Structures are given as C-alpha cells and as structure tokens.
Task: structure prediction
Amino acid sequence: MKLVVFGSSTGGTRILESLFKGLPKLDCAMAIVQHINAPFCQKFAKSLDVNSGMNVICSDEEEIFKPGTAFVARGGKHLEITYPKAQNKDGEPVNYVHPAIDVTLKSIPSSKQIDLTVILLTGMGKDGVEGVKYLKEKRQCHLIAQSEESCSVFGIPKRAIETGLVDSVMSPEDIKNFLIKNYT
Result:
C-alpha cells in the first residue's frame, strides 16, 4: 500500500487546497495533519473533496485506508496510523497542538508493506521534525519539504531541512507533479 502523509500549519490550508485542485484520483491513501480546530475540519475536507478526484473526509473515530482516500485529522484529537487503520485519539497537545504531526508520524508502523512519502508544508514551529527523525531511523520513507519561497511561514519545512534528512525540497507545483507522476 502506498501512503502519503501531509503535515502543515500556518498557511497550510491554502497550499493544500491548491495541491488538491484538479488532482486526479491517485493510487495511494493520504493522511492530512493540518493544525485546525474541530469545527473547521468538515468544511476543509469538503473543499479538498469537491476540487479533486480523491475521496477526502474529516476522519471519524476509526477509518480504513484505501487507495484514492484521504483523511483529514480532526482538530482536538491526534491521528494515529495503525496501518491499515487510522484512529483519532485523545491526548494532550504535542508541540502545543492537536492534531500533532509528530504523533501521527511516530505512530506509523515499520513495515515494508507501506510505501511511505511524508510531505511537510508551510507552518510555524517544529512539529513533524521528531516524527521525521523517528521514521528515518526506523524505516524507509521519502521526505519532501516545501520550498522557502513558496511558504507563508518557513518554520516546519526549515526545521526538517536542518536535520539533513529531507530527500527533496519542492514548490507546491512540483509537489503536485510528483504526486501525479508517482501515484497515477
């Protein structure tokens, strides 16, 4: 199974909406960890769903990953991936937020059955960096960071790049082209 995990914060909803606009149904499942509050989750998922070929929903308590589906982490909860399932879990904020990118990334099981790509987009802080370090130590994954000039806030991608673990730095247009090329 192919899995793509997006992590983003400030400015991320705009970037994700541009990435999903016109995106065909892809041969992968997706998890989207955007720092948002619970009431906005349904509206945000709907905007991604209607503008793409992907089936995008705000995750409920437990979801099953399937190609062509994307789950948006519910605000106020952490999204944990116990592949092939995604589950919302209560918990204290991590890096001052929930959902936290680090929690999601650290929950992904080490399995050769999962072809994993992680894409860290615009946002303040360092959420996602510890998760990336964990993943790179435990398993293979392809890590993409959004380019500085295309970020609203170059915090999360910058911190990831500073680890030396990022495989590619791309603009949103290049990320979209990467997804289409590798997952259609």
User: Anything to note?
Assistant: The radius of gyration is 14 Å. Residues 26 and 181 are 10 Å apart (CA to CA).
